[in-house]
Structures are given as structure tokens and as C-alpha cells.
Amino acid sequence: MPKEILNNKEIERAIKRISYEIIEKNKGAENFCLIGIQRGGVLPAKKLAKQLEAIEGCSVDSGTLDITFYRDDISLKKEQPVMYNTHMPFSINNRNVVLVDDVIFTGRTVRAAMDALLDFGRPAAIQLAVLIDRGHREFPIQPNYVGKVVPTSRDESVLVSLFEESEKDSVTIR
Length: 174
What we know:
By secondary structure, this protein is of the alpha/beta class. The chain has one domain (8-74, 81-154): 3-Layer(aba) Sandwich (Rossmann fold), CATH 3.40.50.2020. It is built from three helices and eight strands; from the N terminus they run βαβαββαββββ. It has helices at 8-26, 42-56, 108-118; strands at 3-6, 32-37, 62-65, 96-104, 125-133, 145-149, 158-161, 170-173. The strands form two sheets. A five-stranded parallel beta sheet has the order 3-2-4-5-6, with helices on both faces. β7 and β8 form a beta hairpin. α1 crosses α2. It is globular and about 45 Å long. The termini are close together.
């Protein structure tokens, strides 16, 4: 039976807190951009961009990054990989890039995202924002910004349900 670990209000608070932390660390909104890792990081990145724009009163460059062919498990999958859009209508050169994902687990997705990102330029720094950190790293990768740390077993799954405009956002564990 799934157990809710974050409801809509708690997700909103986490997004707001992460937004302030990003602004503080980057000394404003001028020299960073948000990149949502396809698929799970796209909606959290959109929510962060909206919140950052509300706080700072200016637009924040944001985009999406497909990591399909950078994954280290692509040859292990039996089915054909599904590709998603990469959309970065701005340069990442000499900028702080904040990669965004919904959940960090082993760190393999973030490693693939960093490899993919470097094909688009040379950022000044790469930071990581996640809604949920569930532990169990296989790579030495830690997020800079975390909505909530949720200790899990390897057998459990964390399901993040976010919507463009909804009061039904939630995070559950099963």
C-alpha cells in the first residue's frame, strides 16, 4: 500500500525553499540556468523556474535534457530506448547549471546527465537540485539542494506525481 510522504503543500514549500537556496548560492538569478532531466526532472524544473521568477522578478533560463544514449544501462535493456526532447535555447558556457531531477537514487542518472550536458558546452559549475533523496548511491554524487531526504530500502519505490497546474501533487513510497 503506497504511503504519502509529501502532499501538495509540502511540495510547494520544498520548491520555495530550494528556490531561495539556489538564489542565495548563486547570488541572484543572473548567471544560472535550470535544466530538467527528462522525464522526471522536467516538471520540478518548471515549478522551480516559476517560483524563482516570482521571487526575483525576472525570467530564468530553463530547458530540458535527454540522457537516453548516455545511460550506462542502455545495452542491458531488451526494449528499444525511448528518446525525449532536449531543449536548451541558450548557452551554458561559463554559467552555473542547476540540473533538476525528481528523485536521486544511485547517482547513475545524474552521471549520464553531466556527460550529456558537457556536449552542449562548458559550464562554470554544475549543481544538482532534487525533490527527493532516497540514498543508495553507487556514484559519489550528492545534490546541492534537496526537498526531502527519505530513507528507503532498495526494494521500495518512490513515485513523484506532479502536474503542470494541480493541487494533487504528491510523493508516495511503496
